Here is the input.
Amino acid sequence: MVNKIQKGGDNSPKQKINYSYFQNLVDSLKVIIFNENSLYKIAYNSKATLYGFITLAIYGLLSSISTLNPLLIIGNMATMLIAPFISFSIYNFIAKYIFGGEATGVQYFRSISNLFIIFWLSAIPKIGTFILILGIIWLIAVNIFVLKKVHKLATWKAVILGLLPLILIAIFFLGAGLILLGA
Here is the structure.
C-alpha cells in the first residue's frame, strides 16, 4: 500500500508517488484528530499542494453556493484561495524566521490547506455557523499541532504562534476598551 513513509537522505519523511485525492482527504481527516503519520504524508507529498488548493476551492464553493450568484461564488472561491495563502505565509514566516522552524512554506501550506475539509460541513443550513465556529477553534488546536510537528517548534513556541491571532484580537479590544473608558 502507498501509506508507507520512508526516510529520505536528508532524514525527512518521503512518500511514494501514488497518492490520490481521496487518500489525501482520508489523511486530512486523520490529521484533524492529531494523527502524526498522516500529517507527514500530507506535508511531504508534492501532490498535496494541488489537493490543498482544491480543498480550499471546494470550501469557497460550498460556503457560497446557496446564494446562486455566480459572481459571489467565483469571488468567494478566489478569496478562499488567496486569503488563507497570505495568512499561511505570515504564519510560516514567523515560525521559520523568528521561531527557527524547519518546514518550508509549501510543507506548511500543504499541512494546513488540506485541513479546510473541516469547514465543508459549515455549508449546512441552520447549523453551519455553529460548525464554522467549532471548526475555527479546532483549526487553531490543529495548527499548533502542525507547527510543533512539521516546523519542529518547541511546544511553547507552537502554542504562542497558534494563539497569536487571539492574542492580537484581545490586545486590540483591550486597547479599544481602555480608549473608550478614557484610561
Observations:
- Residues 70-98 form the longest helix (29 residues).
